[in-house]
Design brief:
single chain; alpha/beta; 5 helices; 29% helix; disordered N terminus
Length: 190
């Protein structure tokens, strides 16, 4: 059997590498990502800017419908119009088709896996505790960056729901302004 030409071999390898699904999210010391009314006013401005920068640097965004709706209502539209965005939902209620937004309603976890296989860039997940939990349960999330903010909200929207258990490896850590701890973890399996 003849060997593949180098150019074809390079192209085959180039497109068979699956891109990473990443998320970055601020979490209070007591494990909440937002207040009950979806407010983020407890988050330091520098953390908010770092998370926004991660969204801006990504070529592809992925959000759950609750987070998408919250951002859409807060900003009066979708603020990431230049980014290809996918929203996981049970219903196609997309009012922003002209703004580069596609709703994934039919077998969304399979669609996300296909997106990881076909994307030319890593995919940034725009938080939401339930959505992130479902990605972890399906072994689709590859990286989590947590900004642990030294505040107790007392109640609100939880970061992670019940999961089956998985292993993660710390790949980065730093302290921001002698307050917020930033931790990055890579998924290592079940």
């Amino acid at each position: 059997m003849d060997a593949l030409p180098n150019s074809l071999l390079v192209e085959t390898v180039k497109y068979s590498i699956m891109k990473h699904l990443k998320t970055c999210i601020a979490v209070s010391l007591d494990g909440f990502i937002a207040t009950k009314d979806n407010e983020l006013d407890w988050m330091p401005e520098n953390v908010s800017k770092e998370i926004a920068a991660a969204y801006e640097q990504s070529g592809v965004l992925l959000a759950g419908v609750n987070t998408y709706t919250c951002i859409f209502e807060h900003w009066g539209g979708w603020p990431y119009k230049s980014k290809k965005t996918f929203v996981v939902s049970h219903y196609d209620t997309n009012v922003t088709e002209k703004e580069n937004v596609t709703f994934l309603t039919d077998m969304p976890l399979r669609a996300i896996n296909e997106l990881k296989s076909s994307s030319e860039t890593d995919i940034q997940v725009i938080g939401g505790g339930k959505f992130i939990t479902s990605l972890i349960e399906a072994s689709l999330l590859d990286e989590i960056t947590l900004y642990i903010v030294p505040v107790m909200l007392g109640d609100g929207i939880k970061f992670i729901g019940k999961t089956f258990g998985s292993k993660w490896e710390l790949t980065g850590h730093r302290v921001i302004d002698n307050q917020v701890v930033c931790l990055t973890y890579q998924y290592k399996g079940e």
